[in-house]
Amino acid sequence: MNETNNTDKPVGAAPPKSTLHLKRPVEQGTVRQSFSHGRSKAVVVEKVKRRVLGPGEAAPVAAPAKPAISMVPARPAQATAVPAKPASSAAPPPKTGVVLPTLTAEQREARARALLDARVREEEDRKRQSGEAEARRERESRERIEREAAEARKREEELRRAQEANFRRQSEEEARRRLAGGEPAPGPSVPRKPLPSGAIPPAPAIARAATGEEEARVPRRPILAPLVPQKVLVPTPRPARGADQRNRGRLTVANATSIEEERTRSVASFRRRTQRLKGHGAQDQKEKIAREIVLPEAITIQELANRMSERSVDVIKLLMRQGRMVTLTDVLDADTAELIAEEMGHKVKRVAESDVEEGLFDRPDEEGAPVPRPPIVTIMGHVDHGKTSLLDAIRHANVVAGEAGGITQHIGAYQVVAPGGQTITFIDTPGHAAFTAMRARGAKVTDIVVLVVAADDGVMPQTIEAIRHAKAAKAPIIVAVNKIDKPEANPQRVMQELLQHDVQVEAFGGDTLAVEVSATKQTNLDKLLEAIALQAELLDLVADPERSAEGTVIEARLDRGRGPVATVLVQRGTLRVGALVVAGSHWGRVRALLNDKGEAVEAAGPSMPVEVLGFSGAPEAGDRVAVVETEARAREIAEYRERQRREKAAARGPAVRTSLSDMMSNLKAAGHKELPIVLKGDVQGSVEAISAALEKLGNEEVLARVIHSGVGGVTESDVTLAEASKAVIIGFNVRAHKEARDLAEQGGIEIRYYNIIYNLVDDVKAALSGMLSPTLRETMLGNAQILELFHISKVGTVAGCRVTDGVVQRGANVRLIRDNVVVHEGKLSTLKRFKDEVAQVQAGQECGMAFENYQDMRAGDVIECYTVEEIRRTL
Ligand code: GDP
User: Fold this and answer.
1) Which of 209, 594, 707, 844 is spaced 20 to 30 A from 261 at the CA atom?
2) Backbone phi, then psi, for 789, in 5-degree steps?
3) How many CB atoms are located within 10 Å of the residue 572 CB?
């Protein structure tokens, strides 16, 4: 019996005990597959029978599952597939010429080896399977035993736990009893009921403090100490709450299972208790602090809560209770905020928005010693009495006397040196424009007023006004009787006239200094300066140069190269380069300071005029300047003022403009009966004639009063006068200077020009009667019919029309008529013929039209085009 036969026999004979059979076309078997983590599963393995190679006794060879086996050289397969089994490891030498004659000896050998391998593998499989089944059975029985044991343990543990709970209850009761009875704490050897398992050693002693709070901090026995053989941790009975607080941090099996519930509750209750102790207590205490709350005109809820140091939720709650649903960022008015603050027990201090300016000006000097400062002088007087001439003369004389050839520049103010060596600051703005402007803004700049009165003219309306201004400003007056070089000059008469206006010169027993000067001849200028210096001494003018600077803007302009330039008269302290300054609604950091000679200086002390470069915009004359510490504050003030300015402008509106017609209504409303007029004419004769005619106008109710008349163009000073006295300016055959025109426009002063006396008189008459309202006359231009509408993205709706009659003009007024009803009145914004914008379109032509601010045209509408003429009515 050779090896081959042996090999073939079990395969061919199909032994009954074998589960695998090579003869079956498809063989099946199960293989137990085990995984590393202990699981195993049965896998069904199929073997597919290969085709029969030949007839006769040649046994059909079933190829093993691995397809490579039949063809590859057997040696490596044998080495790997066959485990160390002595019987099959010895490969038999091949027998010749028996199985398949076509096969070579090598092939036969390979086949024989393959068959052998297959059989060996089969054997192996069988063995392994039976082994595995055995192992499984063993494992299952082991598991069952373990399960049973575990259940037993569980039961045991439950029992124990119940007993422990019982025990705990008992000991707690005992503790309570003892505490109540004031009994001392028991020693560590508290008798304990042994646990049924018998394996648990008795719990260590429970130490407790005798009484009070200490009880909560009882040291506990270690929880992990007693280990039962089953490795079950025994939870310790807890005598007091404090003990489990101590133990909370440790996570053990016992902790996690048995006392879980208690632990959670403790945390919550602990937190509640802490809150009760700390939170509410603090809250109560907080409410007791009554704060003084600074309330602006509007405040957000959040800010209000902050200022009260309350929770904003509480503020919101309070408001909700009053039926107001609000959020943090809602703004409350001061009244509501005050109610809330008081409700919450705080005091309230209401402040206005203007408080941002608080402390900006007129801060008291620090204790630094004030030093004398030069007087600031303004020259005032009636028009043409020689103010400008006098200022020029003083400056010129001084410049010539001082540094010959020095170039002076006009910066709105300059300093000169009096013969006695005192410095005097002159505000180089003739007329009382600057003075009134500054006074109107609340700035008191002038220390001394030099009142110029022409010796040949005497006291005139503006002289009187100047006197009033000076007195109101409590500035002492020095009278300069000018033009004494004129032959008709009569200084005595001037001084006499002044008496009527409460100005008593020394010569007449008063205390007002008077100097007779001539600006053109430069007579007595020294005396004037001396008088000013003397007056200044009497005033005892001092200022502290050390403090932070304050001043007033004398002039400001926008310089092309240098940006906004403001001439500032420093009044207190010293202004330095680099300081942060605020003036009006502008602010900035001082970039450079230039004195009246155009020289750059580092600092400007009291009474010194300087040009300040670096403002964000040009402030207005009369704006006060202050140095602030931070940019934030500078910006805050500037923004506040800008708001104020805008609000004022909005409130003023165009209605406040002074014009003849609305002036009459204003006057009527105010109960005034005078219509003040500033009259300028080309020749004295006509001026006088007109004045006389106007004075005759009116009746017992109203009358026209010429407050100032003169020859020449309308000047800035005329406008200022008109502004100050709410007068209308009438120019007869003269026009206003550009500056005057600008000023009038700014101030809303109407300047009317006439060249026929009767017209002028008639208008004034009409104004006086309150009937002057220009008549509007409408002139029909033409009609157009809308044919089609086009919507053009940038232009809007454009109506394609045909002009049916007349003409249509661009810029003319139009009415849109639909079914004979006027639906819109306005102006044409576009008039197009084909692609071009045209001025007018004739009848019969087609055009495109668009309205200003109106889009709702329809095809078929009629556009009526007309012009409006204003016809001034004269009586
Ligand atoms: P303001 O309107 O007050 O500024 O007056 P001005 O300085 O413009 O002077 C008005 C006119 O008076 C000018 O024609 C000056 O030449 C003239 N004037 C000014 N001062 C004197 C003076 O002292 N003597 C003479 N004779 N004329 C003067």
Assistant:
1) 209
2) -115, 140
3) 25
Tell me the pLDDT tens digit for each residue of 108-133. 888 888 888 888 888 888 888 888 88
State residue 129's pLDDT score. Answer: 87
Give the whole-angstrom CA distance, residue 594 versus residue 557.
Answer: 14
Ligand 1 nearest atom to the CA of residue 430, by list position:
4
Q: What is the bridge-based pairing of β-strands 775-792 and 331-333?
A: unpaired
State the CATH architecture for 775-871. Beta Barrel (2.40)
Rounded Cα distance between 731 and 715, Å, is 11
522 lines ligand 1 (CB under 6 A): no
Weakest-pLDDT range from 64-78, 406-420, 500-514, 857-871: 64-78
Whether the per-residue pLDDT at 214 is higher than 70: the answer is no
- For residue 393, which atom of ligand 1 is closest to its CA? 20
Give the residue among 867, 852, 860 at the shortest CA–CA distance from 801: 860
Q: Is residue 146 within 8 Å of 46, Cβ to Cβ?
A: no
Give the DSSP letter of residue 328: T
Q: Decide whether any atom of ligand 1 lies within 6 Å of the 388 Cβ.
A: yes
CA-715 nearest atom, ligand 1: 2
Q: Which residue has the higher pLDDT, 495 or 4?
A: 495
pTM: 0.43
Does the beta carbon of 107 sit less than 6 angstroms from any atom of ligand 1? no
Q: Give buried/exposed letters for 77-110 (b at 16+ CB in 10 A, else e).
A: bbeebbeeeeebeebeebeeeebeeebeeeebbb
Ramachandran quadrant class, 770 (left: phi over 0; alpha: psi -120 to 50; beta: rest): left
Report the CATH fold assignment for 372-542.
Rossmann fold (3.40.50)
> Given this chain, do its domains 372-542 and 656-771 carry the same CATH topology?
yes
**Residue 161 half-sphere exposure toward CB, CA atoms < 13 A:** 13
Where does 545-653 sit in CATH, by number?
2.40.30.10
Ligand 1 neighbourhood includes 430 CB (under 6 angstroms): yes
d(CA 263, CA 547): 69
What residue segments make up the domains of the chain, in order of their start?
A: 109-224, 292-355, 372-542, 545-653, 656-771, 775-871
What does the alpha-carbon distance between residue 453 and residue 742 come to, in Å, rounded to a whole number? 28
CA atoms within 13 A on the CB side of 234: 29
The per-residue b/e assignment along 419-441, b for 16 or more CB within 10 angstroms, e otherwise, is: eeebbbbbbbbbbbbbbbbbbeb
* Closest approach atom of ligand 1 to CA 523: 23
Residue 312 neighbours by CB distance under 10 Å: 18
Q: What is the phi-psi region of residue 173: left when phi exceeds 0, alpha when psi lies from -120 to 50, beta otherwise?
A: alpha
Task: Please list, residue by residue across 115-125, b when 16 or more beta carbons sit within 10 angstroms of its beta carbon and e when fewer do.
Answer: bbbbbbbbbeb
Residue with tokens 């063995």: 127
Q: Which fold has domain 292-355?
A: Arc Repressor Mutant, subunit A (1.10.10)
Name the residue with higher pLDDT: 450 or 80.
Answer: 450
Q: Is the beta carbon of 485 within 6 A of some atom in ligand 1?
A: yes
pLDDT band for 413, please (50, 70, 90 cuts).
confident
Cα 436 from Cα 719, distance rounded (Å): 12
Strands (E), 446-539: 448-454, 477-482, 513-516
CA of 386 to the centre of ligand 1 (A): 4
CB burial readout 281-291, b (16+ within 10 A) else e: eeeeeeeeeee
How confident is residue 586, by pLDDT bands cut at 50, 70 and 90?
Answer: confident
Which CATH architecture fits 656-771?
Answer: 3-Layer(aba) Sandwich (3.40)
pLDDT in tens, 151-171: 888 898 888 888 888 888 888
Q: How many CA atoms are closer than 13 Å to the CA of 455, on its beta-carbon side?
A: 19
**What CA–CA distance (Å, rounded) separates 132 from 138?**
10
